[in-house]
Structure formats: C-alpha cells, structure tokens
Amino acid sequence: MTPLRLTAFGAALALAALTATGAARADAPTAGSVPSAPAIPSFADSHGLTVVRDATEVHGSGDFTITVTTKQLSGRHKIRILLPGGYDAHPDRRWPVTYFLHGGGGTVDDVAAAPALHSDSMITVVPDGGLKGWYADWLMQNTAEGAANWETFHLTQVIPFIDDHLRTRTDRAHRAVVGLSMGGYGALHYAQARPDLFGQVAALSGGIDFGMAQIRAAVLATELNLVGAWCAVSGSTSTSGSGKCTGYGPYVDSDAIFGSPYPVLDADRVWKAVDPAAPVNLAKLARTGITLYTGNNDIIDIHTAAASKTVKERLDKLSIPIRLVDYGNGASLSPTCDGGHNYGCWAPAFADYVPRLEAAFAATD
C-alpha cells in the first residue's frame, strides 16, 4: 500500500462523505403496500438492553421504533423495525430477518428513503450505528463519545433481543446483513466476523477496502468531524438522510476507533485485522451469498468502485461466488441515479436486490 498522507483537511476532501448516507427525499415513502397494520409487539429488557418506556415511535403500518440503553454504549439508542404486512395474520409463521446498517452521519430513519426494505416477505431491523460508530468496538472508550462498543451491541445484544421478541427464523440461511457507505463496511465486516449468524450480505457504495488510503481518510474525517469542509467543497447541504449537514458528532482522537492508520512498525495492525478486503477475511464468506453495488461517477463512488473491484477480484481467486453491480453513471440502474453516493442510486439498488434476497430466503425453505 502506498504511504498514507492523511491531513485533516485532506481527509475531509478525500472522502468525508464516504460515510454519508446521502440525501433522502422528504416525501420518500416508508413502506410498500401492506394488507394490514401489524400490532406493535411488547418488548422487555433482555440481553443487556433496557427498553425505554413510553419512547416508542410509530411511523406507519408495521413500521415503528423502540429506544434502548446498554452499558456497551453511552446514551439512548433507537432500533427501527419494519414488519411484513401479514405478520399478525399468520401467528404461526416465522420470518427471515434483514439487518440494515445506515451510513455515517445518518440515523435509523434513513431507511425511509429505501422503501424496498419494507417487504412483506421478511422483517427488517435498523439498529442505530452512531454518527461515526463504524460498526466497531472502539479502541478508546474515554473520548467525548463515551462507551462505544457498537459491534458488541449489534451482534451480541440486538440480534438475540430481536429473536426473543419477534417471530424470526434464527438460522443463518434466513438472516441477512446489508448496509451502505459506512454501513457497507459494517455489513461485510459483520458477515466475516460472524458467519454463523448471516447467510447473505450486501454492501452498497461501501468503504470495504481498508488498504486504500482514501477510505482510511474517510474514517479520520468522521473522527475529526470535518463535515463542514465536505459541505463547502461539494456545495451540498445534506450529508445524511435527514437532509441536513448535521456532522458526525463531537471531535475524537484520530486513533479512537481503529488506532493509528499509518503503516509504520505495524501501528495499523487493527486496520489490517478488520479489513474486509483482506483475503483471510474474505475466505470466511465461503458459505455466504455476497452482493456489492456501486456507482463510479463522483469523487466518492469512484473509490468505492475501486474497493468493490478489489474485493471481487480476490473472491474470484478464492473461488467464492459474488455478484457485483457497477452501475457506472447510473443510467443502467434508474433515472434517479447519477452514479453518485446518494439514495437516488441506493433506493433503486435495494429495489433490485430485495427480490433476489427474498428468493434466496425462499430457496432455503
């Protein structure tokens, strides 16, 4: 790998928005057509999660958010849940589950910009990933963010909590993890870390090659909260599904999440250990259905395209099947897609992917 030169401003310009979830239209629907309005199940404290009472938010039919606390993370954290329309009508039926991981600067509500994820064939769960959590257990736990064990929260608390309270199919063949941008990294990393949990994985415009200086720079940009520089350069007022340039939370040390990013005397050993593109980690996906989507038409997705190509080439060498969709400037995907790092591309990408995922779930029955 070429030497890393990750100055603060350079990090912002070099891909701060890699972690952004893109601009969601305010009128984006939150669900497809559903035949009934499933009742909101009751949730009890379990698996280290304490449910915050009277904090449930109802967004629509079978679409609601609960709030929890945990010793693994500081503060309150939301989990948005989308139930299939027939959930109540078929009380003896159990359902596949897809976990959607949002991008940096985003929230659980960004799922509203991807209506295909509200499916009548599966439950979709959207756990909070933090403005810059990077789906990791941080090396530094004494920053302004406080406790930050995101991977532990998701994999050892949220998943069994959901399985306890909803009628889920709990085998790996009926569980998927998907994500975009920062969440694309999270999805591929989680599928590698816990192949016993996930039978399907998809990453959209993901930061999935930590061997690339540009992607390491994006992580640093979120740690240093350099969103202002990105907004100025892009001319954008939106770096998340909220439609506002809200930033990535308080400034933290540039080594807070994965340690030093510089490949000197093995200082970047954590980066290399969790790199989704590392062949040793890709080999863990031998029994997993893998899908990647990316454009290549802006200063962000040109790098996610390079990362996705690297991952595919290495999986090919390992003889592990993968489906890569590089939609270039977006013309082949949808009239709303410009090939950039935004929901104008991600929403139709999910519309293409979800029926394939549903078929994969059904094929295992």
Descriptive report:
This protein has helices at about 10-15, 150-165, 180-195, 215-225, 225-235, 270-275, 280, 300-315, 345-365, and strands spanning about 50, 55-60, 65-70, 75-80, 95-100, 125, 175-180, 200-205, 290-295, 325. It starts with 7 loop residues before the first helix and ends with a helix. Helices cover about 30% and strands about 15% of the residues. The longest helix is centred in the last third of the chain and has 21 residues, at about 345-365. The model is unreliable at about 5-15, about 20-35 and about 230-245 (pLDDT under 50). Strand 9, helix 8 and strand 10 form a beta-alpha-beta unit. The protein is built from nine helices and ten strands. The chain has about 375 residues and is α/β, with parallel strands linked by helices.
